[in-house]
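Retro notes
What went well: the complex prediction finally ran end to end.
Inputs used:
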Amino acid sequence: MIIRLLTPLALIALASPALAAPPVFAHCGGCGTGGSSHGVHKHSPKKAKLGAQAPDFTLTDLSGKKHDLSNYKGKTVVLEWFNPKCPFVVAAHEKGGVLQTMAKDYAKQGIVWLAVNSGAPGRQGHGKKLNSKAAAKWKMSHPILVDESGDVGKAYGAKTTPHMFVVDGAGKLVYKGAPDNAPYGNPGGALKPYLANALADVSAGKRVRKASTQAWGCSVKYNR
Amino acid sequence: MHPAASMLAVGMIVLGCSGSPKPPEAPVLDAQIAPAQQVKNPTLPTARQGTKPNQKVAMTVSWMQMEPSQAPLLVAALEPLPEWYIYWSHPGEAGLPTRFRLKRQSQQLAHTTQMPLPKRMTSPGDIVSYGYEGKTHFFIDSDASRNGEDFTLRADWLACKEVCIKGQATIKVSAPPAQGRTPSKNAFKDWQYVPKPEAIKWTKTGPAWMLEMETSKRLELYPHEAFQLALDQTRPPYCKGNRCRIKLPPSAFEGNKSLAYTLRVESAGTAQGFTADFLKGTKP
């Protein structure tokens, strides 16, 4: 059986001007109080890029405490995009899930772990009560930061929940992607603990060997 | 409709997911499908059409044979409820691939699945994914269809609307009967939309890679996983009109053995898909 539906392809090369080089942003440095009071700081990189300075931000957690990324300079920071109603997040945080104890375990090594909820009001997973309930149920030891404008999520390019980012002690983004290759705990082959491997590389002072992996999960519930 | 094609009815099953309080409407049944054949599923309660409260996707199966000399293909039709969608094998920036597994007793059976061209979807936050709305047919080729024994087919999907719900269905499949019936128009239409392998060459101009197809009015590029990661600094849509333009870092050429993608080519009111590997025949 042969079915050909389209005329043969005619592919030709196209000459075009070179693309402009991407803009370069200066690092915000210690602008925690001098930048914007909430969200991504004014003088910080607008978009996260692997190997470059991570966008600095200030966000408030569920208890009202402000977290400024630049205040954690010198420490490795894990950012975990979070939605307590996303089934992938539920599976990752419940018993046996990849994120059930990771934050607690790595806290012993001095690694800071911050969950970020970029869900907009009215969309799935938004709301203090809902997030607080999930944090209690899953015995989360790390704070959940509220980013309902989505500005920080978009600056990092967070697409899914859970989408993981690692910022090293120098403030550079060194990993982005999935916690592992096993959504719902099912790797469909050998388990690859991407995030744990990245953190091991950072702790050993090495370059992260696999710095970008395919994230899986629900889409982040942005407002626009 | 292709004159050589024949479709053999097997059975249907509707199973659901979890997480929604609203009962769905009963899915529309394919008139060619035989009466339901329910199988026991260890992870989901027994479901009956129209009675399980959280159904989001209905699955039916049938056999399709394009020519008498060729082995029949198992056709799994997945039908999300209106406004819900499921994902392609390469779901994009969010989601989960739709997957099929064949099993006889406890043994997994080797197979290949061909999926029709998906639709590109953009969610708030510029999140691009690829998937299917409405009834979609998936074509499964396996030796299991040639030796006359029954087996089970399991489908796993993520159904999304405002929220996402993981679902699955398992159906017992009987060997294909000797003679079948005419395939449904929709199944055959989806079969025509299954991308075909093609050699496609890009040309580098400055820091960008360019592709233009004279015969097409509109191109769309759907990167597979490795290619999508490599395209991190180029946002979709990658094509405008009949031209595509992308940027790739040097690491894309050093760290990958394959950069596969699917190209949707629209011309003269029809669309067709082609699968290709960017690295083949392309030098940095």
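What we learned: The two ends of chain B are 44 Å apart (CA to CA).
What to try next: split runs per interface for comparison.
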